[in-house]
Amino acid sequence: MRWKILAVLTAALSASGAIQAQKWERLGPEGGMVVSLGTTGAGPVYLGAADGHVFASGDSGENWELRGRVGQRLDAVVTRLVVDPRDGQRVFASVWYQRADGGGGVFESADGGRNWRLLGLGTEAVRALEIAPSEPNELVAGTRSGVFLSRDSGKTWSRISPEGDPELKNLDSLAIDPRDPQVIYAGTYHLPWLTQDGGKTWKPIIAGIIDDSDIMSLRLDATNPDRVYMSACSGIYRSENQGGQWTKLQGIPYAARRTQTIVQDPGSPKTFYAGTTAGLWVTRDSGENWALTTSKEWVVNALVVLKNNGAAGRVVLGTEQGLEISDDGGVTFREADRGFTHSAVKRLVVDRRDARHLLMAVEANDAKLRESSDFGKTWSAVSLEALAHGQSSALNADEIARVLASPWGWMVRLQNGKFWLLADGAKSWREWSPLLPEAMKRPAPTANPRVTKSESMTTLKIGAAIAFSESEAVLSTNLGVLRCALSGRCTRMKAFESKSQVREVASGATGESIAVAMDGKFGWSDDGGQTAVWRDLPVPMEEVVWVDLAEGDKNAAIYLGSSRGLFASNDAGASWQRIESGLPAGPVEQWLRGVGLWAVSEEGGSFYVSKDRGATWQRADRDAERSIFSGFAALPEGGVLAGSESEGLLRFELK
Asked: Can you give the pTM of this predicted structure?
C-alpha cells in the first residue's frame, strides 16, 4: 500500500494515541527579561514579562513563582503592575501587544496574579498605568492615543485627553498627586503635560527642558508632591513647582543612556534610584549628586523599594537578564532569580551523529552557548574564542543569527552571513568559507579594461536554506543548490543548478536523497542531485517553513511544515496528505520525529504530541509552558527536551 509507512494514513482513527498522563519540568537557566515590577512596598512583589506572564514573590524577592498569564496572547508586554493598596492580592496590569495589529488593554487579577480578566481599553496599546493614592478606585492609563480615566476601578473608562491631539499621545509615563487625584502628570514621546482639573484642560510643562525629550519616568516626592522628578532622553530633571520650571540635574551622563524609572526610598526620602540602560544610579541628596552603583552593562527596566521599618529599604532590580537584590541601599547586589525561569533559548540543536550531544543558544549575560553530552542533564559553557589569520579573538554572541549541527562539529552563522565552525575536539572557532566550484567561475560582464578576470568572477552568495548529510553541507546559493565539504570546496548539483529562488532543502544521511522547495516547485533527487523530478507543492512556496525526510528501506517519507499545517508524501512529492487527527491546520513551527514520540509546535505556542507516529495527536501544553519554541530534542525514555524563547529549557515526559 502506497502510504503504509505513514501511520497517520493507515491508523488515523487509532485510539492508541491518547495520552493519559504527562509532566512538564522547567530546567532553567534561571533569569530572563524583567519588564515591570509592582508592589505596595509591603506584601507581595509582582513581576511582568514580555509574553504576558506574571510572577510573584511572597518573601520580598527571595523566591519567585509563575502565577499566570495576562490574556491569551504570547506577545503581551506587561508594562506596568499596580497593586491595590487596600488588597495586596488585587493587581492591575497595563499591556500592549508586540505584533502589528496593536491593541492591549488594562487587566485585573483578584487572586494574586493567577487569573486575569480584561477590564477595558482592549484596542489601545497601554504603556502606563497609575492608581490615585488618595482615591484607590481611580485608575489613569496612558496609551498610544492619549490618556484615559476610570473612577470605578476599571469597570468603565473615558478619554480625558483631546481625541486626535497631535501632541498629547504616545504616553510613556504618568504620575498622580497624592493630595488631589485631579492633578495628573503625563509624559509622552515628546514632552511632559499637566492637568489640574482631571483632564478638562491640559498644558505642556516645558520651561527649562531640552525640547523633543521622551519622558520615560515621572516621580513625585512623597514628602513634597510639588517637587517632581522626570527622566528624559536629555537627562534627569527636577521641578520645585509642579513642572512650572525644570532644572537639569548633573551627575548622570545622558549620552547613549535612557533612564527608564526613578524610585524614591520610602525610608530615606532623600534617596532616589534611577534605573537606566547603563546601570543603576543613586542619589542620597535629592538629586544633587549621583553615583553608579552597578555594572554599566546592566539594563535596568524596573525597580521597587520595599519598606524596612524606617531604615534603607530593600531594593529589587529587574534587568534584561534577571533580578538583583540590595539590602544596603543599592551599594551591593546579589542575584535573586530563584524560581524565575524565564530566559530565552534562541535555538536548541541536536548532533545528528550523537543524540545525547546538544547545543543551545541562550540570551544571557554569561555563557550564551552551552552544550550537553547527556541529553540535557548537565550543561557546560562553549567558548567563543575564534582564530582567524593566526590571530585570536572572540565571536560576538549577539551577532549569531543561526546555530547548526554540522557533520564536523557545531557551526554558527553570523548576521553578516559568515559561517564559523567549532570542529570536533577543537578549542577555537574557525571561519568556514564555501568556495565557488571551478566550473562556475566565469567573468562577470564588465566594460572596464582595468578589471582583471579574477576580480570580475561571479560571486558566490549563500542563501538561508542549509542542510547536512553525514559528510557534506547542502547549501542554497545564488547559483542554485551546492554540496560543500569541510574544506569549503563545493560541487555542482546539476538538477538544482540555475535556480534562483530556494526556499528549503533537506538531505538524507548519505547525500543521495535531496529534497528542495524552489522556484515554486518541489524537487526530489535520489542520485545526489544529478537528476530530479519536479512536482507541485501542497501549499504556495512562500508558505513552506521546513522540509524533512526520513529514509526507509525502500522509500523516503517526506514531511513538510507550512503555514497551513503538516504534510507528508511517500511518493517523491507526487501526492501529499495533510496530517490531521487532532493536529490543527495551523502554522507549523518546530518538529520532532522521536522513536517513541513525535512532537509539533504551532504558532500561538501550542504543543502537540503523538505516540503512534502521527496517527493521532493530542495537545499537551499548559499555559505555563505555552510559548514560541526554538527547538526540540528527543529523550531516550520517549520524552521531549524543548527550547523556549521565553520559558527557558523545558522537559516534557509521559508518566
From this structure: 0.86
